[in-house]
Amino acid sequence: MIYIFVGPPGSGKGTQAKRLCEQLSLAHLSTGDLLRGAIAQGTELGLKAKAFMDQGALVPDDLVFGLLKEKMNQSQAKGFLLDGFPRNLPQAKTLSELISTESWQLGKVVNFSIPSEVLVKRLVGRRSCPGCGSVFHVETQMPRVAGVCDQCGTALVHRSDDQESVIRRRIDTFLRETAPILEFYRVSGSLVEVAADQSPVQVSEALLKVLRS
Ligand code: AMP
Q: 80 with 27: CB under 8 angstroms?
């Protein structure tokens, strides 16, 4: 079973994906995290991807899909939650082909809807853990010790693409390239909506409700 989370940067997909995967025993695959992992390892793919990410643009489809497929093949999980993939129509179509070749089943596709100005505020103050992927906020969700991850003790970072000018470009990229996939999944009857402009607990509750519906 494949579940998909779609939403603009900062809509809380990653936070919700982590919680849900623990509850439903799914493997969480975030293409953003996979790409940042490749950058941290200094691989050739990571080097290529970084130039696109720092501009707030999408990384070329073949690079992202190769990385995702490798992780899926290595995993023993019975289900995957895809966080940040697909991000344009060609990726959505490639994924549909993979799902039918592998005889997987597509579960719900969740759209995290939220106004753009809320996203800018969230992302400018966001601090991320490069170790375990946990996220904090300098005003609304401070870690117990400043600059240090509560979960794994790694030093938190302000992602280079969480600067305001890049954030605005990432939101534009989402509206231009990613939003069209919503129609693709609406037509196939897989799309459900969650209002992401609420507290994480409220979003979790709304999410469980739409997934059970
Ligand atoms: P995220 O952590 O999901 O916000 O992703 C961070 C950045 O990684 C994005 O702004 C893109 O540059 C890149 N990225 C992540 N997922 C994809 C994807 N499916 N296709 C292309 N680029 C991606």
A: yes
Cβ pair 21, 91 in contact under 8 A: no
Per 3-state DSSP, the chain is made up of helix, strand and coil in percentages (nearest 5) of 50, 15, 30
Q: Cα of 59 to ligand 1 centre, how many Å?
A: 7
* Alpha-carbon torsion, ordered 114, 23, 80, 160, to 10 deg: 50
Region of 175 please: left (phi>0), alpha (psi -120 to 50) or beta. Answer: alpha
Is the pTM higher than 0.85? The answer reads yes
Residue type, 175: L
As a whole number of Å, the end-to-end CA separation of the chain is 16
Task: Judge whether 186 counts as a catalytic residue.
Answer: no
Atom of ligand 1 nearest to the CA of 173: 10
Q: What is the longest distance spanned by two Cα atoms in the chain?
A: 48
At 35, the amino acid letter reads L
Distance between CA atoms of residues 213 and 209, nearest Å: 6
Cα–Cα dist 137/93, whole Å? 35
Q: Give the number of other Cβ atoms within 10 Å of residue 65's Cβ.
A: 18
Mean pLDDT across the stretch 26-50?
Answer: 95
> Alpha-carbon distance 69 to 81, whole Å?
13
Please indicate whether residue 13 is annotated as part of the active site: yes
Phi, psi (rounded to 5 degrees) for 156: -75, 155
Active site residue 122: no
pLDDT tens per residue, range 113-155: 999 989 999 999 999 999 998 999 999 999 999 999 999 999 9
